């Protein structure tokens, strides 16, 4: 992907600590979701609910990933990978807790989705974790993470959140940047424990399919409740999201296909430029304050 020359605005919602892929220590955060408009991105139901749909299912996905990775930590034989994997687990835990907090805001706005979340938890706990092997669960996670890294790069490169509500922009830039910071780690964890190609390929395909399916389900569920399906802007914004302005479909396909090469290995350094715009070493005086001011949610 070609880096867009755009300016990233930082808000006082997360610890502004420089990128450190060798540690991936979770940042302290203090998001306060006050006065968030219903359509917080470009007054668009499609664009807003693309992110809201992801938000719905992030807590369940993160809980699954944390359980599966913790279950395999004792199998790590290389201490060089153990520390960043523990950092990855910490970051995913914080992501899940924070997005769960925002789901309560969506509920307060009148959206109904509890049944969908119950079904999601059932899928992970009673189906995937019971009937798939530990290694296949890790392969699913590697697929999840590869796809979400692509999404994070698209969001940051295109400056997609430029006109978003400031708190929501900050939330998704923080999450996207940390996805890039720990990109490739789940893959490395998997091949450290099981380097069989079919496990990686099948898990990657299934993991990506699960993510895409839940995003589509979530978007339809929320857009229907906005009663805006017949709005002409829906089709226009959907085309912008998928094909023209943000090109999620062509860019995702282009960047996901290499994952299935037999000798594929993540080149995460090529992506760090996107996250560095968010996690700068220096903050402006308005943004600088003691880390003790943060509260871990």
Automatic annotation (TrEMBL):
Keywords per UniProt: Hydrolase, Membrane, Transmembrane, Transmembrane helix
GO terms of molecular function: hydrolase activity
InterPro entries xref list: UCP07580
Residue stretches spanning the membrane: 138-162, 197-224
PANTHER family named in the record: METAL-DEPENDENT HYDROLASE
Protein known as: Metal-dependent hydrolase
Annotated organism of origin: Cyanomargarita calcarea GSE-NOS-MK-12-04C
């Amino acid at each position: 992907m070609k880096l867009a020359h755009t300016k990233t605005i930082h808000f006082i919602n997360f610890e502004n600590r420089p990128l450190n892929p060798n540690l991936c220590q979770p940042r302290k955060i203090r998001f306060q979701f006050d006065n968030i408009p219903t359509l917080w991105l470009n007054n668009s139901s499609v664009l807003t609910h693309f992110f809201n749909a992801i938000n719905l299912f992030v807590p369940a996905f993160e809980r699954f990933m944390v359980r599966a990775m913790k279950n395999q930590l004792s199998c790590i034989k290389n201490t060089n990978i153990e520390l960043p994997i523990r950092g990855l687990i910490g970051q995913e835990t914080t992501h899940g807790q924070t997005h769960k907090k925002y789901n309560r805001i969506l509920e307060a706005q009148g959206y109904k989705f509890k049944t969908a979340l119950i079904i999601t938890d059932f899928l992970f706990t009673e189906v995937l974790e019971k009937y798939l092997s530990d290694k296949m669960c890790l392969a699913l996670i590697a697929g999840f993470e590869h796809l979400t890294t692509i999404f994070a790069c698209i969001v940051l490169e295109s400056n997609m959140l430029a006109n978003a509500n400031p708190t929501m922009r900050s939330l998704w830039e923080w999450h996207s940047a940390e996805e890039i910071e720990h990109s490739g780690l789940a893959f490395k964890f998997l091949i450290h424990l099981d380097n069989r190609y079919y496990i990686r390929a099948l898990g990657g395909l299934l993991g990506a399919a699960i993510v895409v399916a839940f995003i589509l389900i979530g978007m339809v569920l929320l857009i229907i409740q906005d009663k805006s399906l017949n709005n002409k802007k829906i089709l226009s914004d959907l085309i912008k999201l998928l094909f023209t302005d943000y090109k999620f479909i062509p860019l995702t396909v282009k960047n996901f296909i290499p994952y299935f090469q037999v000798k594929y290995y993540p080149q995460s350094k090529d992506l760090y430029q996107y996250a560095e715009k968010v996690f700068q070493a220096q903050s402006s005086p308005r943004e600088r304050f003691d880390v003790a001011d943060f509260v871990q949610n």
